[in-house]
Amino acid sequence: MTTFGEILKSMVERVPGAVGAVFSDWEGEPVDQFAHIEPLDIQLVGAHWGVVWSQATTRLSRHGLGAVEELLIEGERAIVIVRLVTEGYFVVLATKRDVHLATALRELQRGAETLRAEM
Questions:
Q1: pLDDT, tens digit, for every residue of 45-104?
Q2: Is 88 left (phi over 0), alpha (psi -120 to 50) or beta?
Q3: Distance (Å, rounded) from C-alpha 43 to C-alpha 19?
Q4: Burial (0-12, 13-18, 19+ Cβ within 10 Å), 51
Q5: What CATH number labels 3-118?
């Protein structure tokens, strides 16, 4: 496992209810991932939310509102949180719906900082 994979694994394991994380580039291409679900599934989560991330950043920037730093999507059975690592890279954390949200947000921020330091 790469250093990025180890960072993601540690982050997922520190969040009870987390099912996976993926570190992706601006096009949604995975750099690395760790998941308790199928690897392709977490890669697709990263790719899909990468498109949303990119579009949201473009739209906000056009109106002088800056780039997106974090997106939080609450679904019926899951929560997906996307966080900026550096310009052009983001990390996605997927969790079960009953996750302790403050823990997930804290660990995602910590993971993003660790990924940034490793780049």
A1: 888 888 888 888 889 889 998 878 899 999 999 999 999 999 889 999 999 999 999 999
A2: left
A3: 12
A4: exposed
A5: 3.30.450.30
- Other residues' Cβ atoms within 10 Å of the Cβ of residue 118: 13
Sign of the alpha-carbon torsion through 95, 32, 51, 68: positive
Instruction: Round the CA-based radius of gyration of the chain to a whole number and report it.
Output: 13
For tokens 């199928």, what's the residue?
38
Residue type, position 101, single letter: L
Measured distance CA(72)–CA(22) in Å, rounded: 15
Side-chain-facing half-sphere of 79: CA atoms under 13 Å? 20
Backbone angles phi, psi at 92, to 5 degrees: -120, 135
Q: Where are the domains of the chain?
A: 3-118
Whether pTM > 0.85 for this model: the answer is yes
